[in-house]
Amino acid sequence: MELRQLRYFVKVCELRSMGRAAVELGVVTSALSQQISRLEGELSTRLLQRASTGVTPTDAGVAFLHQAQLTLRHADDAVRAAQQARLSGHVSVGLAPTTASVLGVPLMQAMRERYPDVRLHLVESLSGHLATMLEARQLDLAVLFQTDTPRRWSVSPLLDEKLYVIASPLLAKRPAGAKVRLSQLAGVPLILPSSGHGLRATLTAAFARARVEPAVVAEIDGLALLMDAVLAGQGATIQPGAATARHPAGDVHLSQITDAHVGRRNLLVSLSDDELSPAALATRVVVADTARALVREGRWAGASLLEN
User: Could you read off the pLDDT of 86-119 as tens digits, one per residue?
Assistant: First the structure.
């Protein structure tokens, strides 16, 4: 017995006509009549009395009609409950400090709008630390920069970021133009992350290709302190544009590095789909949607989208 057959039977009883019921249901009369006959055959009883003036339910049909209507109401209630139910749960998302500065709050806002019953746990840490936490199942997903991720993880390219020399207007030895090459940075005092930072490894390799020895005057791994030092004129730094998201445009001067292959790729990485909860799967979509919206709206400085 199918819900479709119950709906057909109830509609025929309401309209007292096979033809009119077929029109409203959008089926041909012969198909409708066949389904009713199958239902009667399954129940081993006659449900409808057919006559030239129309059809009427038999005594068995009347009794069956009441229960069929109740069953259909329950089925409709079940569908509405499923459609209206809010996704709930707990999801942990890891973001590097620069990524968090531009993506963190918009992601929270998007999750509150789409899935208000999902509790979001945001973790801000270095990309390498986030990868370790993901491996230990302490995170559900993260935006990472490394590509050497375990095969069982789900990895989607998200966006590319250009790198900039960021300096205070107070710093005398800073690039003057909007664009600069690494070969022009000899003698510029630089404040960079330490060697354990993925960005530092990228920059070390890039300076080596450019045959330039960078003048590193300090190493700072925390983004907030690093930017404080830059704003105080203690040196320039090299970071993606997202590092300036919390600072007014006039506070710092940015010069885009134009050397080939000097940039940072952002990857949306998560546990495998079969390990993620429905809430985590939904959050992964929201992270990607929010990041792409920020880029399209020009709110993620120096970022360009990548296609999956």
Answer: 678 899 999 999 999 999 999 999 999 999 989 9
- Homologous superfamily (CATH) of 161-263 is Periplasmic binding protein-like II (3.40.190.10)
Length of the chain: 308
Judge if pTM exceeds 0.70: no
**DSSP state string for 154-217:** EEEEEEEEEEEEEE-TT-SSS--SSEE-GGG-TT-EEEE--TTSHHHHHHHHHHHHHT---EEE
Give the residue carrying structure tokens 């789409």: 114
CATH architecture of 89-159+265-305: 3-Layer(aba) Sandwich (3.40)
Give residue-wise pLDDT tens across range 242-258: 999 888 878 899 999 99
Burial 148-184 (b: 16+ CB within 10 A, else e): eeeeebbbeebbbbbbbbbbbeebeebbeeeebebeb
